[in-house]
Amino acid sequence: VADFPVIRSSQERRRMLLATAGIGVAFVLWATSVPFDTHALDYRTIASVRVLDRHGTPLRTTLGNQGTAAVWTPLSNMSPYLIQATIAAEDKRFYRHPGLDPLATLRAAWTDLAQHKLVAGGSTITQQLAGMLWPEPRTIPGKLREAVRAVRLEMLYSKNAILEQYLNRAPYGPMIQGVGAASEAYFQVSPDRMGPAQAATLAALPQAPTWLTSEAGKGALRRRRDHVLALLERSGVLGAEAAHEAGERPIELLPHAQTRGAPHFADWVLASLPALLRTATSLRTTLDARLQKDVEAIVREAETRQGDAATQVAVVVETLPSAEILAMVGSLDWTDPREGQVNATLARRQPGSALKPFFYALAFDRGLSPADPLADVPMHFVDPEGADLSPRNFDGRYHGPVRARVALASSFNVPAVRVQERVGIGRAIEGLRNAGLGDFANDADQYGLGLTLGVGEVTLLDLTTAYAGLARGGVWQPPTYLQEADDSRGCALPLSSPVEKRWCRASSAFLVEDILADDAARTPGFGNASVIDLPFPVVVKTGTSTGYRDAWCVGFDGDHVIGVWTGNFDGSPAHGRGGVRTAGPIFREIAIYLHGRGSRPWVAQPPPGWTERVVCALSGGRPRDACAGTVLEWFNDRDWSARRPCSFHHWRDGRREIAWPAGYREWAAAADLAPAGIDASGSPQITSPTGGSVYFLDPRLGEAAGIRVAALNAGVDARWSMDGSAIAMPGGDFYWRPVPGDHVVEVATPAGRDVVRFSVR
Ligand SMILES: [Zn+2]
Questions:
Q1: What is the distance in A from the centroid of ligand 1 to the CA of 124?
Q2: Burial letters for 87-121: b for 16+ Cβ neighbours within 10 Å, e otherwise?
Q3: Which residues contact 644 (CB under 8 A, 6 or more apart)?
Q4: 621 CA to centre of ligand 1 in angstroms
Q5: Which strand (E) or helix (H) includes residue 523?
Q6: What is the 652 CA–ligand 1 centroid distance (Å)?
Q7: How far apart are CA 239 and CA 197, in angstroms?
């Protein structure tokens, strides 16, 4: 029968039994002494942190503690093809063996012997997992310890738990562990969306991941994938046709990249995570990856147009009213090794005039009306270091009495200093702090009256968020960047809700918005072909730092706030270019782009009890019949009933005359206005469109296209006509729907008339 040795005597038999038992006991003792620490199964020790956009698009996958990208994926979120392909390729009796598969081991050993080298693994999935969790040398004792641990894993965990761990830990290429990171890196799909060809490719990788994903291993990978497809067909997972179709597909692995989008933003999110979220491995942010890409394209295009101007650009786009960050561009090119990774949205820079709106809002809180004249005449003040400062305007001129509305919209400097004087330095600092510009306010004392001229420093992110607070009616909240944070088990971690702070009255915020949306008021400071004039209402403010080092343009429509900074990282000046010329065009492009995506224009929403009243265009007082021109301004009933009549205009000998108050006489004499002061501000002047302008219709705008028609000194009593036919003006200014051709627009008031010709193509 068999040629086993025959045991003859009972003594001999006892000795043999004792020896066998002894070996067994020794083996069990040895086996239990093999270290088996289940902490190794905790995925947190290797997990990457993933930063996703608001729709789940991956922006960044960090390398975990083992220097690999590793994204935990539950078995239920994996393509069934992937699971079947892996079992077919690695361990076809996985669901039937107790952790070890002697048949497979013998077969592998035979193959190895036959080919004189170690080719077939022969290890079960459980053994391979044990090897990944507790690495051992490739020796016989090492293999034995691995086998012991495989059996212990099988005793403690279900087959699916073991398979899930294996698929999340297997190597799929250099620095890639697990199918979650692999499917994202190679195919940019989630692991549940993989088709048979992709699943078979991944299942082919773990035995030689580095070689198979290299250029040299391409042919071998193809053969191994086709082998896996054949196994799937043989086991009935794939029909012949599906297997054939999958086998026809070429192998295309995307190059592994940790960074897929919004790199400055992802860096910033990872660096600014609060302590409570340090265990998060998945961060769903507020960023919109598509919008980010389009904003980056707008920035690049603007850069090629600007040529030698500013060399760097930063942009922030947030939603209104919740200040969720949708886009963050920190530099022109993140991959530029010299300075690309500097995030200029977080760099402290001089804001220039971009801070003025906050001072005006605080002054409106304290009773200033946008109709009140502010004296734009030469003034001198002494800064805290004792230096004599004489603020000048962007256009190098003084404008005499300027209504606060015009002074803010035109960004005149002397009136701004007067506004700050009126608010008081202590209240100004407190107000700025509450408006979210606290960093800046901390060192504000040293700037004295220069504060409102923007000689302190702010970041673009803080400034943009502060404007969002203005849009919220004077209520600041910090920018939001996270929608959801999950730990490696998929459990949501609690997010803190933002704290709100009111820093000015809703009515004051409204007045500032209305002024910054007023293109006609902006004209005296910037001329009437301003690039920030948009064919729909937006609230916008520019700023330029001393010596033209930084240019800013910040503002909002009804749904988004946009902040743009341009300048040089080394602080060198961008020659002679203010905020309007460099940051303005980028702001404009982004505003038009958002409009095209359905963002609503800004709409004036006056607080209850506020209505527009007619005032003298020069003094801002209640108009008298001597007043040469009138404009509309917002008042509540109480302020209006206390409003005094104009004291500037008088009749003398049947002629209009201006009686300059004392503070303006010197300026008026210097400006040569005193003798000829009559009608100095009286006759209407069309500010938009400019004479001889040629407008090109932008097809992107469609129905939204409009040309602003506006004039100075043309109040509600002005009569307007376009190409000879009267047009109704709903007060102030309006948008005319452009028609191709040559046009004549005319305005007439009792004080005079003005005509402008322009064309549309
Ligand atoms: Zn008047």
A1: 95
A2: bbbbbeebeebebbbeebbeebeeeeeeeeeeebb
A3: 621, 622
A4: 7
A5: helix 519-526
A6: 14
A7: 13
How far apart, in whole angstroms, are the C-alpha atoms of residue 515 and residue 522?
Answer: 9
Measured CA distances, 336 to 125, 259, 339, 504, 592 (Å): 44, 14, 6, 42, 28
* Per-residue pLDDT tens over the stretch 599-643: 999 998 999 999 999 999 889 999 998 887 888 899 999 999 999
Q: What are phi and psi of 386, to 5 degrees?
A: 90, 0
Three-state DSSP state, 655: strand
- Whole-model pTM: value is 0.79
- What is the mean pLDDT of the segment spanning 539-559? 88
Q: How far is the CA of 627 from the centre of ligand 1 (A)?
A: 4
Dihedral over Cα of 113, 117, 118, 122: its sign: negative
CA terminus-to-terminus distance, the chain: 106
Q: To the nearest whole number, what is the mean pLDDT of the chain?
A: 84
CA triple 385-386-389, angle to 5 deg:
100
Q: What is the DSSP letter of 447?
A: G
CA of 681 to the centre of ligand 1 (A): 9
CA of 755 to the centre of ligand 1 (A): 24
Smallest CA-to-CA distance from 459 within 586, 563, 561 is with 563
CA of 623 to the centre of ligand 1 (A): 6
pLDDT in tens, 77-116: 999 999 999 999 998 889 998 888 888 777 777 776 666 5
215, two tokens: 């250029």
Residue 477 has pLDDT above 90, yes or no: yes
- State the average pLDDT over residues 346-351: 90
Phi and psi at residue 401, to the nearest 5°: -75, 125
DSSP bridge pairs for 556: 539, 561
At 67, list the tokens. 């220097």
Half-sphere exposure of 143 (CA within 13 A, CB side): 9
Q: Count of residues for the chain?
A: 761
Which two tokens mark 42?
């905790």
Dig out the tokens for 12 from the structure. Answer: 């001999």
pLDDT of 351 higher than 50 = yes
565 in Cβ contact with 552 (< 8 Å): yes
Non-local (6+) Cβ contacts of 432 within 8 A are 355, 358, 438, 440, 441, 444
Q: How far is the CA of 716 from the centre of ligand 1 (A)?
A: 15
Strand residue runs (E) in 630-722:
630-636, 649-652, 655-658, 685-688, 694-695, 707-712, 719-722
- Cα 429 to middle of ligand 1, angstroms: 35
